[in-house]
Amino acid sequence: MIILGLDPGTAIVGWGVIDTGAAHDISRAVCLGYGCVTTDKTMTDSQRLLAIASGVEALIAQYRPEMVSVEKLFFFKNQKTVMTVSQARGVILLVAERGGLMLAEFTPLQVKQALTGYGKAEKQQIQQMTKLLLKLPAIPKPDDAADALAVAITAGQTRR
User: Fold this and answer.
1) Is the peptide bond before 142 cis (omega within 30 degrees of 0)?
2) Bigger pLDDT: 82 or 59?
3) Catalytic-residue membership of 40
4) CA 9 from centroid of its chain's CA atoms
5) Per-residue pLDDT tens for 5-59?
6) What's the CA gap between 134 and 18, in Å, rounded?
7) H/E stretch holding 16
8) Catalytic site residue 97?
9) Helix, strand or coil, per DSSP, at residue 152
10) Catalytic annotation, pick one of 57, 122, 144, 147
11) Chain-centre distance of CA 94, in angstroms?
């Protein structure tokens, strides 16, 4: 199963694609790619959302995932930021639904528990587990892409 993991944001949407194989075995998962969809701060909100939608649509066309896994907003310190990230999440959910893809959503706590067994794991621990589980030579950069891969792994682990 090919899973597209997404870490939503307004300036940066991290993405990561994994393939768990026909047996859906996360221990044999392979990283097919990762990176970021970026938007420029000079763009209007609507232009940024359109760029995010176009970027996610292009990823779906390129990798042909069967599932999209998205990080849920769990807690935000900045109320202004939470609104724009929520809008980006909404665009991502819409694109996935229009594509007829299975959708999974996970809180950061769920991702931490899935990768380390501990809901209060540090970001570095999550990144190290992502590297180990996908047998990567280094921790994926930037952090947004590593987070997206972690979300994809979580979907692969919880998929039965």
Assistant:
1) yes
2) 59
3) no
4) 10
5) 999 999 999 999 999 987 777 888 999 999 999 999 999 999 999 999 999 999 9
6) 8
7) strand 12-19
8) no
9) helix
10) 144
11) 15
Whether 57 is catalytic is no
d(CA 69, CA 8): 11
The residue type at 114: A
Domain architecture of the chain: domains with CATH: 2-158 (3.30.420.10)
Q: Kindly name the residue from 7, 57, 66, 143 that is annotated as catalytic.
A: 7
CB atoms inside a 10 Å sphere around CB 31: 19
Contact 26, 130 (CB under 8 A): no
What the block records as the tokens of 60 is 């779906």
* Tokens matching residue 98: 């229009």
Bridge partners for 54 per DSSP: none
How long is the chain? 160
